[in-house]
Design goal:
two-stranded parallel ribbon, NADH Oxidase, alpha+beta, globular, 196 residues, single chain
Length: 196
Amino acid sequence: MKLPEPVSDGKRSLESALNERRSVRDYTAASLILAELAQLLWAAQGVTSPDGLRTAPSAGALYPLETYVAAGRVDGLSAGLYKYEPAGHSLTLVAGGDERAGLAAAALGQTCVETAAAVIAFAAVYGRTTAKYGERGRRYVHMEVGHAAQNVCLQATALGLGIVVVGAFDDRALRTVLHLARGEEPLGLVCVGRPR
């Protein structure tokens, strides 16, 4: 599914988003619109140049991150688990149905995961980076997911949305809920919704 084109010239300054960014765990029942979700995914890992460079830096431009979204309440998108495809700025359906309750259970029962309109999940294929940089490459992957998650946080703030990064979860359970492929390891979740 092709996503709406991202905007590269927003109305709010970066300084404003930095100043106002806060963790928000309490959301209304209002939906996101598809263009907002598309913008958040682009902020995470969107392609920004003809040679494939992305919004977040990556050691050696090896891009070990895989980005998923569990959509629950997104206008124009059926509830389901999707994989973001940066090269085409599109989504591929992984599993139909609302996976937020399963994600919340894997995240040690954190209610913000279930009540968010959508949850963006980051996973990594460490081998893409460690093949070039050895074990030190694992550190580079962790730096990259931090960059990508912060991009999402700042973009959400600029859009007037609430976000919170979640790092407490059971790896095995999260791997199952996200239907991760062999070699993909879960790294973190970003809950997104309209702040209460």
